[in-house]
Amino acid sequence: MFLEQGIKPENKFWKYLIGSVIIITASFVGQIPFSVAVLYKSFKDKAVFPTDNAEVMKMFEPNLTLFLVMISFAFAFAGIYFVVKYLHNQTLLSITTSRQKIDWGRVFFSFFLWAVFSIISFFIIYFRAPENFVWNFKLVPFLILVAVGSILIPIQTSTEEYVFRGYLMQGFANLSLNKWFPLLMTSLIFGSMHVFNPEVTKMGYIIMIYYIGTGLFLGVITLMDEGMELSLGFHAANNLVGALLVTSDWTVFQTHSVFIDLSEPSAGLDVILPVVVVYPILLLIFTKKYNWSNWKEKLTGKINVVESSN
Predict the structure, then answer these.
(1) Is residue 235 part of a domain?
(2) Which positions ≥6 away from 59 have C-beta within 8 Å?
(3) What SS3 state is found at 52?
(4) How far is CA 165 from the centre of its chain?
(5) What is the pLDDT of residue 157?
(6) pLDDT (tens digit per residue) in 199-254
(7) What DSSP designation does 207 have?
(8) Taking the model in full, what pTM does it have?
């Protein structure tokens, strides 16, 4: 079972705190190239070193900014590998899935399911109010975005999934042998990590319902499916399609996307709808496809302590 694979007598919770510090440190090391680039450009242009994150994000050409930002996630992923292997004496597979190997069919099914839904949803919104969007397609910058984004964005989303749905999910399972506790804690922490996003400034804290709800949804499909494959695919599709299809001046990244959204953001049904309608529909689809059952036990039951083979 997925959570049980991390339950070991030597896996005290303090190790997960140390491991988290190591992963965060690795991420900070990965931010050095971006910081050096900003410092160099400020010196070259004889400009004041920017203190606002929005200003920093607009200093370079969007594809270069995306590349520099995403490097830190590659370092963080290396940190995860190091911590899991040498601090916890586990394999990366053991925090990925309870299966003998990663089920890439699940990853790709979840990816394409959410990608198709996201694209259809966007065009419904577009045709309802085309005046809110500007055609932004430029072939060469877009192809570079596809190349950079297709490699680095899945690394970014996978890193987040390995931290929250893998490493910390099993970590909190060691702290409390009730399945609801790691599910709730990782969802809350995942949501709170987005509190400094510019979307929160624009829409208000009500958007945290979406972020925490998304974390809860990803945690549920991880526990129900006994592995992270579905959450890996969903998260990658969500961020990659968003980066390629549409951007705006108030989102985290401004990319060479196909469209630019000019509308003024507001938190309404678009925040609540995914959590209360769309995600339950996806859960129904996954349930039918993978024959999920015994929901109460898998989401709120006791964790059975077993000897791990990893």
Answers:
(1) yes
(2) 38, 41, 50, 65
(3) coil
(4) 10
(5) 97
(6) 777 777 888 899 999 999 999 999 999 999 999 999 999 999 999 999 887 777 78
(7) G
(8) 0.93
On whether the CB atoms of residues 239 and 111 are closer than 8 A, the answer is no
> Token pair for residue 3?
């959570």
Residue 310 lies in a domain: no
Determine which helix (DSSP H) or strand (DSSP E) holds 135, and give its type and residue range: strand 133-135
Domain that holds residue 265: 3-300
Whether residue 306 is contained in a domain is answered as no
Distance CA 39, CA 50 (A): 9
Q: With cut-offs at 50, 70 and 90, classify the pLDDT of residue 310.
A: very low
- The predicted pLDDT at position 49 comes to 72
Residue 218 lies in a domain: yes
> Which stretch of DSSP H or E encloses residue 254?
none
What the block records as the tokens of 256 is 């060479």
Domain count, the chain: 1
Which amino acid makes up residue 140?
A: V
CB 220 within 8 A of CB 183: yes
From first CA to last CA, the distance across the chain in angstroms is 12
- CA separation for the pair 296, 294 (Å, rounded): 6
The H-assigned helical ranges of 97-228 are 104-128, 139-161, 169-175, 180-192, 198-203, 208-225
